[in-house]
Amino acid sequence: MRLLPALLALAACSEPAPPAPVPAAPQDHLLDLPPAPDGPAAFTPPGRDEIPEGPFGDAVRRGRAAFTDTAAQAGPYMGNTLSCSNCHLDEGRRPDSAPMWAAWGQYPAFRKKNDRVNTMEDRLLGCFTYSLNAQDSETGGPPPRGSQVLTDLQAYLFWLAQGTPTGRALPGRGYPALEAPPQPPDVGRGQQVFAERCAVCHGEDGQGAQAEGQDVFPPLWGPRSFNWGAGMHRVNTAAGFIQANMPLGQPGSLTVQQAWDVAQFIGAQPRPADPRAAEAGAGTDARFHDHDCLYGETVDGHRLGEGG
Ligand code: HEC
Ligand code: HEC
To answer: In angstroms, what is the span from residue 301 Cα to ligand 1's centroid?
Structure first.
């Protein structure tokens, strides 16, 4: 998307959206559902030691393992070594970190991203395709429909969501929409925020740190990161996630401006191609990137998007 429209869209996106009825107008991010009736307190999922015995509990335990060490459970279907819990913090429990207990009761839902009603299985396949970059995996794609790992993940999500109302937006769902920055986001200022507040864990080069094949600190860009189709490549999504959750252990410590700037900086780095580009070719930008992102922009002489 071109930068000027991106900035305008960014300003427009900061307006609080009016609540929509349940069969909401198509949106490419989260459906705007009416709030849960029981007030604003975030839901508390069951304790980690409350997983029941028996075959269902076993599936929940396997799903939890797949959520927190995804490569160990689903390695052949991932082109990187990220885990679900790298972006859905605290094993998918943390409010404002797209927690799984808030997601479960929202599906099936229409998604503009693929223009149809998505089941939870579809949604999880999307995570493998984009966030876990399945195109570069050993098998070249996400787990097959109905496979054990998809069932186990759903058992875990369902268990976390015990007692939540279906079809209601729970407080803490998704990543918070961050208010517009005082000044347009700036890659140069973002680089400085990155060096001062992020590089200590994610590395000067943004490639994180690995131990025994697992990401101790996940990479934020480059060949082992999420691809150009993943939700986190959107500057507004990343800014909301970062302000609410990063630096790890110091949530809310960045100013609104710093969060936008560092998200813009990360959004201006190369990452694996959008898998939809294989089919959509040169039309990928217009068709799939009409939102707040830097796909197709030229930064430092490098054209972002296809191939990096
Ligand atoms: C690189 C970061 C990243 C990784 C890794 C990741 N996700 Fe996500 N996930 C996102 C983003 C971004 C969204 C969209 C949130 C938004 O738009 O506010 C999302 C949304 C979701 C949703 C829908 C949430 C809702 O409330 O509707 C589910 C379910 C989900 N992810 C599950 C998973 C699972 C399971 C895995 C691992 C197999 C995974 N994700 C891996 C970033 C990630
Ligand atoms: C103290 C170490 C630490 C610092 C400092 C830190 N992070 Fe993180 N970050 C993490 C860890 C660990 C995760 C994965 C979370 C998990 O698995 O629990 C993460 C996850 C992320 C993710 C999502 C996963 C991915 O691969 O994209 C983003 C984006 C991110 N951090 C951005 C930032 C930014 C921007 C800063 C600086 C403002 C920052 N982080 C500072 C440790 C840190």
So the answer is: 31
Ligand in nearest proximity to the CA of 242: 2
Residue 105 Cα distances to 5, 99, 123, 134, 229, angstroms: 34, 12, 13, 26, 24
What local confidence, expressed as pLDDT, does residue 32 receive? 53
Residue 165 lies in a domain: no
Q: Are residues 33 and 142 in the same domain?
A: yes
Together in a domain, 34 and 152: yes
pTM summary value: 0.90
What CATH number should be reported for the domain holding residue 95? Answer: 1.10.760.10
Co-location of 109 and 190 in the same domain: no
Nearest CA to ligand 1 atom 20: 98
**pLDDT for 213:** 75
**pLDDT tens digits, one per residue of 145-194:** 999 999 999 999 999 999 999 998 899 999 999 999 999 999 999 999 99
Whether residue 183 sits in one domain with residue 256: yes
Q: What residues contact residue 40 under an 8 Å CB cut-off, 6+ apart?
A: 171
Ligand 1: nearest atom to the Cα of 132: 5
Evaluate: CB of 221 within 6 angstroms of ligand 1.
no
The pick from 187, 198, 200, 243 for probing ligand 2's pocket by mutation, whose C-beta has the most ligand atoms within 8 angstroms, reads 198
Structural domain boundaries, residue 270:
3-10+177-303
Interhelix angle 187-197/256-267, rounded to 10 degrees, is 100
Residue nearest to atom 37 of ligand 2 (CA): 198
Total of domains in the chain: 2
